[in-house]
Automatic annotation (TrEMBL):
UniProt xrefs under Pfam families: SET
Lineage top rank: taxon: Eukaryota
SUPFAM superfamilies for this protein: SET domain
Name of the featured protein: SET domain-containing protein
Residues annotated as signal peptide: none
CDD domains tied to this protein: SET_SMYD (cd20071)
Sequence ranges of Polar residues compositional bias: 22-34
Disordered: region residues: 1-55
Lineage: Eukaryota, Fungi, Dikarya, Ascomycota, Pezizomycotina
Domain SET as annotated: residue spans: 56-200
Biased composition (Low complexity): 7-21
Length: 355
């Protein structure tokens, strides 16, 4: 589906999505509307807690033009875990590119799960069996979430019903300790609104480029406000995304200058390069916030800002702590308190406070 949680500002490009094959996925289609309860789970939810929902948050409904889609059944605040499901199939990085391995995992499913699987959207990828094509049309890339640093991908029945928007309101993550595909709200969502995730590998592409890729790979084009502006504010979306691209490019240039000079870099030049990078990242932060891209891309921007503060050589721990604290806030909302990245930031902040 789409590349989720790539460490983009470390390689200095922005990512919002996740998956194995291509960067986008179309709206899912299906013949029957279904209603699926999803409990409001805590960060350490277990299979037993899923069977005892404390609240019904989501329902899957048929739409006139987007197939099946997931909607909220009540107002939900940012930072809420709204979906945590065990994957129907989880594959290692090596197996996810092996059609035989995908089919083998499919035939290990129970008959009800196989039926649910076969009802998922199929982009009808050429030269692939239906089972393999459905997997590549719906799987989420778990790279960046595995504790051993390996990749892998997963497919969930409910997760596969979440449609795409270039302005997402939820963030996907994979929680390895519980083997859960999790979605946290990154913005408040009103009752009756659709739950949407961003499948794009990069958030800096303008609408026309995003839509060309969507049409090429899946035969659909997104019609969110960033793609089909319905207000003066959203008419400036492409301008903001071009600004993000330019800011990232500036940071990339700074990165090259810094790495090329390495040990030979003078303190004055070190500060000069870091200051230029931080100014570009400040612009990026503003643009991401305006565009409501407040999940992975914003967290990565804050991580990069903390890194460049440290690179000045005369470390002001207060500035580093400021950006790490903001990264922590975003990651807590997007991934949960018990996510590995969230816990790593807490450790870093404790080190900064102690030293």
């Amino acid at each position: 589906m789409h590349k989720e949680f790539a460490s983009q500002l470390e390689s200095l490009s922005l990512s919002e999505g996740s998956g194995v094959s291509t960067p986008t996925q179309p709206s899912h289609t299906g013949s029957d509307a279904t209603v699926s309860p999803c409990p409001e789970l805590d960060d350490t939810s277990s299979p037993e807690s899923e069977l005892r929902p404390q609240d019904t948050l989501l329902e899957v409904l048929s739409t006139p033009d987007r197939g099946l889609a997931v909607f909220t059944r009540r107002k939900i605040k940012a930072g809420t875990l709204i979906l945590a499901e065990t994957p129907l199939i989880f594959l290692s990085k090596a197996d996810e590119n092996d059609a035989v391995a995908i089919e083998k995992e499919f035939y290990r499913l129970s008959r009800p799960d196989q039926k649910a699987y076969l009802k998922l959207f199929d982009a009808q990828k050429s030269r692939m069996s239906q089972v393999v094509s459905i997997y590549y049309s719906n799987c989420y890339n778990c790279e960046g979430f595995k504790l051993d640093g390996t990749g892998g991908s997963a497919l969930g029945a409910m997760a596969s019903r979440i449609n795409h928007s270039c302005i997402p309101n939820v963030q996907f993550s994979y929680h390895e300790p519980s083997n859960k595909m999790r979605f946290f709200t990154i913005r408040d969502i009103a009752r009756g609104k659709e739950v949407v995730s961003n499948y794009e590998r990069t958030v800096t592409d303008v609408a026309a480029k995003r839509q060309r890729k969507q049409q090429m790979y899946y035969g659909f084009t997104c019609r969110c406000e960033a793609c089909v502006p319905r207000s003066e504010f959203w008419e400036k979306s492409d301008e903001r995304r071009k600004g993000m691209h330019d800011a990232i490019r500036t940071v990339q240039v700074c990165e090259k200058r810094f790495v090329d000079r390495d040990a030979a870099i003078a303190q004055v030049e070190r500060v000069e390069i870091a200051t230029e990078a931080l100014e570009a990242l400040a612009k990026l932060e503003t643009l991401l916030s305006k565009e409501s891209l407040v999940g992975v891309p914003l967290a990565n921007a804050y991580r990069s800002m903390a890194k460049w503060e440290e690179r000045k050589g005369e470390i002001d721990s207060r500035e580093v702590m400021k950006w790490k604290t903001r990264e922590l806030e975003v990651c807590t909302n997007a991934f949960g308190k018990d996510a590995q990245r969230t816990m790593d930031i807490r450790v870093k902040l404790e080190e900064l406070r102690a030293g």
